[in-house]
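Example 431, ligand pyridoxal-5'-phosphate.
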Amino acid sequence: NTSLQEDDKEIYDLIQKEKYRQFSGLELIASENFTSLAVMEANGSPLTNKYSEGLPGARYYGGNEYIDQVENLCRKRALQAFRLSSEEWGVNVQPYSGSTANFCALTALLQPRDRLMGLDLPSGGHLTHGWQTSKKRISSSSIYFESMPYQSNPETGYIDYDKLEENANLFRPKLIICGASAYPRDFDYPRLRKIADQHGAYLLADIAHISGLVAAREANNPFELCDVVTTTTHKTLRGPRAGLIFFRKKKESDLENRVNNAVFPSNQGGPHNNTIAAIAVALKQVATPEFVNYAKQVRANAKALGEALLNYGYKLVTGGTDNHLILWDLKPLKLTGSKVEKICDMVNITLNKNSVLGDVNMVSPGGVRIGTPALTSRSFKEDDFVKVAEYLHRVVQIAIKVQEKAGSKMMKDFVVACQDVEEISALKKEV
Ligand code: PLP
């Protein structure tokens, strides 16, 4: 049994480089976080060797005595983390990722070609919520089901619930999905439930981004009114990469069997037991007062960052944030998200370009998404984020200058024009 370093130096060295990259720069991608050593230890454990198709107590393979205990513990902790009673709610902890969890949930709730409505991608929704363009069905959630996305109001950036209600009256969906990847505000669950009930539709909340905030009572509680709740485990929840599906144990709709069967055998094979153990470790941490403080700080930091950028005179979608992220509209500066992301990369700040409402070209989004969960895990406080805002202000000023120097809007000219710009190397040193 040789170590990774001895066995495969190439991969070992790349891991060391990535580790250095993660810790030497400013990590602002809203969907990322730094998980704990304990989580990584469970994730890298011998549990990865075991096959265990099925559920605890009902497996298709022998030798699952300990694996059953791990999965049961994970299920118990998942319910506890969100204060759910096992009488009313159940959870499947086997989905390999958030996308898989969502497709399993659709498999459980819908028949092929049934109708669903989810938040449109340019409004901040996720691909798996029925994403399609006017020309093409892109996500399997729009290929196998009929999708009619709903949007945010272009003036305010907030979800247009009135329009959603109007369109639902025409489309009569069987499922409404709420939740988002790039929406800086919370969700109006009572309004969504009311609209769903008008059509006898299910309501599914995908809380992938905000699950840590929900667990810490720092966001509205979707469990009060939704039938199914899905989440990833690696964003604000700070666990390994995976997904969870919570379902209401209503006898008449038998969601328990439908969800469990949708995961296995409909969409997945053997569960990744190492990951399930790592989720359990993360969920134990979520139940601590330290985690509640962490979630509060994530929001306070996002607010401080947003306010600092507003003070520089920049435009944020919805004018601010209620959660862990901000969406910065760069169109008034005549910049694209790609250009700002590029300069950020050059100075060791990691964030991502993001479409904002009103973009004409999906390939060249007009904004960037910035999140606070990862740097809050590295103990950043409000003052630190005011400093981050100053760095981002400098990045944007550099981008404006470089764009002028490039004399064209083309990305390749922009990259060439970045060469020998002193402010870039100066900022990199400071970061
Ligand atoms: N749902 C939402 C709201 C997300 O933001 C994401 C990913 O960013 C997913 C689902 C998909 O998760 P995964 O990348 O684990 O498949």
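Summary: The first strand starts at residue 26 and ends at 27.
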